Amino acid sequence: MKFDAFSAGIEPGGLRNRNQIRILICYLLASLNVPLPKKDIVAIFQENGLANYFEVTNALSDLTANGTVLLKDGMCTAGSSAKVIAGQLDSAVPPAVRERTVSAALSLLSRMKRESENKVEITETDRGCQVTCHISGGDTDLMSFSLYVPDRRQANLVKRNFQDRPDSIYQVLLALITGNRDLISDILKEMSGK
């Protein structure tokens, strides 16, 4: 296969052919069957070294311009021709690349769901930042807590760590508040990998 795409930032096994990049975008959107922001599609390719940034943005522009990928309110979905392309031409892209792409997208969707369900508010004060974390139980908060950190950088670190594992934080706080030593022991073992 002819390499006609920029290769800067691409890991071994990444795509260096423009048609493969277009096909993989179609495959990704057809496989997930949920709207994705354009920036997140680019991030999936970039963060996993699957294709060059400029090639992905050009491919997305081409696919939206010709109606293969539908763009509405900044969200991309697979049009009917994208689904056909994904079904007929997915073998043009190596299976490992397809699997890595879909896996990265599913991780992204999982993170987006956790972040939408478990909110974090950062309020800057004259002495630093107040970070308030909410653990959701659907339509109500199961738990919320606030803590002070000295600067915005640390506030963002708290936010990121909280949204990575809100379920673990809930379990730890609940175990500490209720004095459940067995649960605390189980959580510590899980965290240390034993």
Descriptive account of the structure:
The chain is of the alpha+beta class and about 190 residues long. It folds into 2 domains: about 20-115, Winged helix-like DNA-binding domain superfamily/Winged helix DNA-binding domain (Arc Repressor Mutant, subunit A), CATH 1.10.10.10; about 120-190. About 55% of the residues lie in helices and about 20% in strands. It has 8 helices and 6 strands, in the order H-E-H-H-E-E-H-H-E-E-E-H-H-H. The protein has helices at about 20-30, 40-45, 55-65, 80-90, 95-115, 150-165, 165-180, 180-190, and strands at about 35, 70, 75-80, 120-125, 130-135, 140-150. The strands form 2 sheets. It has a 3-stranded antiparallel β-sheet. Strand 2 (about 70) and strand 3 form a beta hairpin. The radius of gyration is 21 Å and the shape is elongated. The model has no long low-confidence stretch (mean pLDDT about 85).
Task: Report the CATH architecture of the largest domain.
Answer: Orthogonal Bundle
- Unreliable sequence segments: none
Rounded average pLDDT? 87
Q: What is the CATH class of the largest domain?
A: Mainly Alpha
- Strands side by side in the biggest sheet: 1-3-2
Number of DSSP strands?
Answer: 6
Total separate domains: 2
- Helix-strand sequence: HEHHEEHHEEEHHH
Overall radius of gyration: 21 Å
Q: How large a portion of the residues is in β-strands, by DSSP E?
A: 15-25%
Please work out how many helical segments DSSP would assign: 8
Percent in helix: 55-70%
- At the fourth level of CATH, the homologous superfamily of the largest domain is Winged helix-like DNA-binding domain superfamily/Winged helix DNA-binding domain
Strand count, sense and barrel status of the largest sheet are:
3 strands, antiparallel
State the end-to-end distance. Answer: 47 Å
CATH topology of the largest domain: Arc Repressor Mutant, subunit A
